[in-house]
Write a structure and sequence with these properties.
This protein has helices at about 15-45, 70, 95-100, 110, 125-135, 150-155, 185-190, 230-235; strands at about 50-55, 60, 65, 75-85, 115-120, 140-145, 160-165, 170-180, 225, 225-230. By secondary structure, the protein is of the alpha+beta class. Strands 1-8-7-4-5-6 form a six-stranded mixed sheet. It has a two-stranded antiparallel sheet with strand order 2-3. Strand 5 (about 115-120), helix 5 and strand 6 form a beta-alpha-beta unit. The relative contact order is 0.16.
């Protein structure tokens, strides 16, 4: 794997501490405004209407078929990541974006304390896709939605988040997002945004000469040396990426 040589790139301007702190304060005012706008958007999201869905939509989990209503595990709310799948393809050729976002799944206890279950609904068959989950070391509840994608999504594609509310035996979809909306859980992106060189992707507005090694239009931001980036440490640890066994 090739690592960037940071000494070949320009650096930010060097100033005295007082000047630096003044610039940080100016940026902080914008960051606070951004946070408040995010709060306002979240407030509007909480006021969205919802649509009823069939609580018996079938999914397949580790114990076999299970209806959607049971995926809540007794909680009232459910967040599902809709993981794309390429049938019969090896691990290196599975969706790099879904691998990236699923790899950022939050520690569940904090969600559980708010009456929320987190799960993955995969587009692929259970046995094959669950082997991928095991290779990646993911521990969230995993279900195949291979035969229920249309009932769940109504023509929308996999690759994003769906939120549901349970009222007894009734289930409602309350929110859905895809594209950059999936960055809600991408803590790596948030942390990279704090650094001087950022995400190093070609679309970013960066100073001339800043590293921009990854073409997001080609999915390069999620891959390294031909496979999803997060797979490399698993291989280095000796885990098998054979999905066929």
């Amino acid at each position: 794997m090739v690592e960037a040589n940071s000494t070949t790139y320009p650096r930010p301007e060097i100033v005295d501490r007082a000047t630096w702190e003044a610039e940080c304060e100016r940026l902080l005012a914008r960051e606070k405004a951004h946070t408040r706008e995010g709060d306002a958007i979240a407030a509007a999201r909480r006021r969205l209407p919802m649509v009823e869905v069939d609580p018996h939509i079938p999914l397949v989990g580790e114990r076999g078929p299970v209806p959607l209503v049971d995926v809540f595990e007794g909680r009232r709310q459910l967040i599902a990541y809709l993981h794309m799948w390429h049938d019969g393809k090896p691990a290196a050729e599975q969706c790099e974006g879904c691998t990236f976002f699923t790899g950022h799944a939050p520690e569940p206890s904090h969600l559980h304390s708010r009456d929320v279950t987190y799960a993955t609904f995969c587009q692929g068959p259970y046995a094959e896709s669950a082997r991928y989950r095991d290779f990646m070391g993911w521990e969230m509840p995993w279900y195949s939605a291979r035969d229920s994608g249309e009932a769940l999504l109504g023509g929308r594609g996999f690759g994003g988040y769906a939120c549901y509310l349970r009222d007894g035996d009734r289930v409602f979809e309350t929110y859905w997002t895809t594209g950059r909306g999936t960055e809600a859980t991408a803590t790596s992106y948030r942390l990279l945004d704090l650094t001087p060189y950022g995400r190093q992707e070609t679309w970013e507005d960066s100073p001339a000469g800043w590293p921009q090694r990854y073409d997001s239009a080609a999915g390069e931001q999620f891959r390294l040396d031909g496979r999803p980036t997060a797979q490399w440490p698993r291989l280095a640890a000796g885990h098998s990426d054979d999905l066929s066994s």
